[in-house]
């Protein structure tokens, strides 16, 4: 069998950025420059790296990005107040609450202070509820990126069996909802799923979103299946690896997303598209 096709996210991300840049320019011309606010309360270095990369990508698209750093000792009350203030601020169109959060502050609690119309990363439980009810809402950008990438590469979802590995509120669960919406038959696996390879090995598409480097091997993948690697796990050398053991899966799968360069760039591009959508 020939090695897996590499499902790059770069081309789709570039197309999305181009469209977003044009929409951002039109908004700015119309006197409504799009603005994203990122609320941070951590000294975590990989989080800081991620926030800087969003700010750079936003600037390239003509979107202003304010980083509101409340410091690693910020209280839940202070974070909630800042999110409520930004939700009221007419000059701000999108709000992200960056994780990790200080002890005593939970994303699920605080995200309800983000106005749903500005909730560009679908963190407010109202956004997830609306997504489940098939009402207009911003989906978490990573979950949306999984589906966008599959569609971009012409991978049929209707009637296909998709196994999602991970049930988090930010990735696994919303990805499962979006895949159901595309008429896939979805199985959601998690840390208590016994015999993971038996489940994923029956799927046409495997979405790995567990945050466990190398979790998915050839033994988890049916020959020729499509594998989407959502994992972004920092290595001690400062690199990034996915949840898929690419060396073992590549000779075996039909297609596989690279890490980096797969889901990641599409996620950032969709996040910025949500900001212009919110401003429009
Ligand atoms: P999380 O820790 O909140 O959730 C992990 C999920 O995986 C849990 O539901 C857990 O039950 C499941 N899991 C853990 N170990 C497992 C195992 N051995 N077998 C089966 N299931 C297992 O993580 P998250 O926030 O959902 O993120 C998942 C991964 O996606 C991480 O690597 C994260 O860095 C990455 N991520 C990437 C992007 C991107 O833009 N590419 C964005 C967000 C998150």
List the domain count as a whole number.
Answer: 2
The coarse overall form would be: globular
Terminal residue distance: 48 Å
Helical proportion, percent range:
25-40%
Fold and architecture overview:
The chain has 280 residues and is an alpha/beta fold. It has 2 domains: 31-115, 3-Layer(aba) Sandwich (Rossmann fold), CATH 3.40.50.10860; 140-264, NAD(P)-binding Rossmann-like Domain (Rossmann fold). It has helices spanning 10-29, 45-61, 76-88, 107-110, 125-132, 141-152, 172-181, 196-200, 246-249, 263-279; strands at residues 5-6, 35-40, 64-69, 94-97, 161-165, 185-189, 205-208, 226-229, 233-234, 240-241, 255-256. The strands form 3 sheets. A 6-stranded parallel beta sheet has the order 1-11-8-7-5-6. It has a 3-stranded parallel beta sheet with strand order 3-2-4, with helices on both faces. Strand 2, helix 2 and strand 3 form a beta-alpha-beta unit. The longest helix is centred in the N-terminal third of the chain and has 20 residues, at 10-29. It is globular, with a radius of gyration of 19 Å. The termini are far apart. It binds nicotinamide-adenine-dinucleotide (NAD). Nicotinamide-adenine-dinucleotide binds next to helix 10.
